[in-house]
Write a structure and sequence with these properties.
39% strand; OB fold (Dihydrolipoamide Acetyltransferase, E2P); alpha+beta; 5 strands
Length: 88
């Protein structure tokens, strides 16, 4: 790689690093399963509030009372789904 390419790559890496320093992702939350609905969704308790009809990742089997990890897509709370059962 030539000097120009290396300089350009270093500049891009610095820009990305600066952005990542200020980024605080809220892309996962934890909740407790309240109900499992027949349509492939679940009602989840999160910070004392019920999140209704949260989609459940295909292939994931849940039980009422389990603590789950909910994935928030695009940092937008409207786009969320139950991703997995908390392993700990």
């Amino acid at each position: 790689m030539g000097t120009i390419e290396e300089s350009l790559l270093n500049g891009v890496n610095k820009m990305i690093d600066r952005k990542l320093e200020n980024y605080t992702p809220k892309d996962v939350i934890e909740g407790q399963i309240l109900t499992i609905n027949v349509d492939g969704t679940s009602d989840v308790l999160y910070l004392g509030q019920t999140l209704s009809n949260v989609p459940v990742r295909e292939g994931l089997s849940l039980s009422v009372g389990q603590i789950v990890i909910i994935k928030i897509m695009y940092n937008n709370f409207s786009f969320k789904y139950v991703d997995l059962v908390r392993p700990w």
